[in-house]
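Below is just one:
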Amino acid sequence: MTPWTEDDSTTFRAIAPVAVPRRQEMIDALVAAAPFAGDGAIRIVERGSGDGHLAEALLTRFTRAKLTALDGSATMRTTAVARLARFGDRATVAAFDLSSLDWWDRMFGVDLIVSSLALHHLNDTKKQYLYKAAAERLSPHGALLVADILEPQHPAARAAAADRWDALARAQAEALGSPVLLQRFFDERWNHFRFPDPDDHPAALLHHVVWLRHAGFAAVDCVWLDAGHAVFGGFKQAGASAPPPPAGS
C-alpha cells in the first residue's frame, strides 16, 4: 500500500469543498445518528480525523463530550489543533499509524467511534477486524459511525455514481465561484468511480452491514447515501424503533 503523503493532505484540503459530495450534509447526517443526548458526557474517538471538520461538529453538538482526534498526517493534525482550540481540553489531537494496532487501546470504554472518508484505506479483512475490535471495546450503549465511499456492485450503478459525483462537484464549484477547484478535481482524477486507485479499497454497503452484524452490533443502519458515498454504522443496543416526534414539538 502506498502511504498517504503530506502532498495528498494538501490536495485534499484544497479541493474538499468541491470534491466531497455534499460534505456538510454528510457530516450533519453522521452527527444526527449519534444516539446520545446533546448534554451527555460522552467520550469519542475519531479515526482519520483530517482537518477536524467532523470533530468540530461533534463537539458543538455534544457540549460535554470529550473527543480524541487521530490522524497520520502532521499537517492535518496542525490544522485540526487550530480548528478545535476553542474547545479547550475537550479536544485532543494525536498521531496514529494506520497500519498499527496500538491505537486500538484508545477505543476501550468510549461511547462513540467515528471515521470519515478514511476506512476505505483498509482492505476488507482489516475492516472486519476493526469492526470486531470496536464492538468489543465500545461502552454498552456505544456506536460506531462511518462516512465513506462505497463500491458499486454493477457497472450501471458505478456509472451513475460517477456521473452524480461529477455533477455535485460542478454544482459545488459553481456555488463557490471556483472553476479552478473544479478543474483541479478533474486534473487530480479524484472521482474513484472513473479512476480507481489500487490503494483504495471501498466495499459494498451490503458487505459493511453484514460485517457490522457479525462483529456483534445489535443494530446496523445506513442514514445517508449519495454519489457512491454513505453514512452508516453499528449500534451496541438495538433500542425500540419508534417514530421521532414531529419537528418543532
